Amino acid sequence: MSVNKFLKIGLVALGWTAIGLLAATRLKLSYAYSNNPIAWREALILAFTDWYVWAALSPVIIWLARRFPFESRGWRRGLFVQLPASVFLSILKMTIEFSARRQLAPNFTQRFPSLEFSSTLFTFWAMVGVIYAFEYYRKYRLHELRASQLEIQLSQAQLQALRMQLNPHFLFNTLHAISSLMRRNVEEADRMIAHLSDLLRLSLEHTGQQEVPLNQELEFLKRYLEIEQTRFQERLRVCMEIAPETLDALVPNLILQPLVENAIRHGIAPRAAPGTVEVFARRQGETLEIQVQDNGCGLQHNDSSGLTEGVGLANTRARLIQLYGAAQHFELKNRTEGGVTVKLIIPFRQCSAQIEKGNR
User: Fold this and answer.
1) Distance CA 146, CA 166 (A)
2) Helix or strand run (H / E) with residue 117
3) pTM, to two decimals
């Protein structure tokens, strides 16, 4: 028999003993000021022969309550079995109780009180009621746990579907860039293919992870920017200002790349003049604020209300809602000095040593 089972039996026995002690104390106090005060020994015998017999019969009562429940469809069957069982077990309990009292205290004789049978029968049905209350609570908690697990699985499936949609989109854009470069500079195109290989390797390493430390996300972003800087050469300048305390913060996997890609595609690519993409990360109390901005053409509207979002932005917004709900904030707007700023705010949570070890 395992230690846990011994501990469980011990706790049950302790519970019945506590009930017996309370009952003995009540008896002692009830007769304390009467003409026939009761001694502690007699009170303990009366109480423990009462409740220890119930303890011995409780496994049978629990089995009956679970095996023949009063359900909506089978309540007649439950009543047909439990009603005669309650009468039989009550009589059995009284017989055992009386015999035990005669053995423990030969000089202490008593009759069956006129209400003892009805009182015993009432106690039986009270125990059945308590058993059903615990059963319904257990089923409710089990149902709640299963519902929570299903909700988590659904959320994970939705997030995974968003990532599966984003990865081909990113891959298509990169291959299109390589194809365009092949006509002009084969060596640069070959270098881009090598960068793409490194990028895909990093992506595969974190497959299935919804959140990664910011430093890993930045490593992936730098590999992507190597490809883009091969394309744009001196037309693309990148500036990063990352607060050191944010490097271990958890962020959604592959969250920065589509934002930077959007800035390059709509802010830098349409212009012949050089452009700058800036990435900022800082902690604001209990939140992490990340900004990606460019100095390009900007939006036709001052915010994203009139913008038809592509796959990258739409997925980013959807993933933030799935992961953080109302605790996140996503904002897309024009800068006063020209260009666009994308700001996202999420709860600040640092990765544990185990998560970081698992990501390596």
Assistant:
1) 30
2) helix 116-182
3) 0.54
Determine the Cα–Cα distance for residues 223 and 108; give it in Å rounded to an integer.
91
The span from the CA of 189 to the CA of 114, in Å, is 101
Instruction: Write the CB contacts of 325 (distance below 8 Å, at least 6 apart in sequence).
Output: none
| Alpha-carbon torsion (211, 215, 218, 223), positive or negative | negative
- The residues near 274 (Cβ < 8 Å, ≥ 6 apart) are 234, 235, 236, 237
Task: Report the C-alpha gap between 205 and 254 in whole angstroms.
Answer: 12
Contact, 168 vs 258, CB < 8 A?
Answer: no
339 with 295: CB under 8 angstroms? Answer: yes
Give every CB contact of residue 91 below 8 A, 6+ residues apart in sequence.
117
CB count within 10 Å of CB 125 equals 14
Neighbours of 136 (CB within 10 A): 10
- 275-311 pLDDT, tens digit per residue, is 999 999 999 999 999 999 999 888 876 555 444 456 6
For tokens 């996140």, the residue is: 328
Contact between 290 and 343 under an 8 Å Cβ cutoff? The reply is yes
Structure tokens at 244: 């050191």
Sign of CA dihedral 170, 176, 182, 185: negative
Each as own residue / partner, the long-range contacts of residues 135-140 (CB below 8 Å, 24 or more positions apart, any chain) are 135/65, 135/66, 135/69
Task: Name the 3-class secondary structure at 25.
Answer: helix
pLDDT at 359: 46
Report the distance separating Cα 108 and Cα 334, nearest Å.
Answer: 94
Task: Provide the phi-psi class of 70: left if phi over 0, else alpha when psi is between -120 and 50, else beta.
Answer: beta
Q: Given the structure tokens 């009432």, which residue do they identify?
A: 122
Q: What is the pLDDT of residues 244-283, one digit of tens each?
A: 999 999 998 888 988 998 898 888 888 888 999 999 999 9
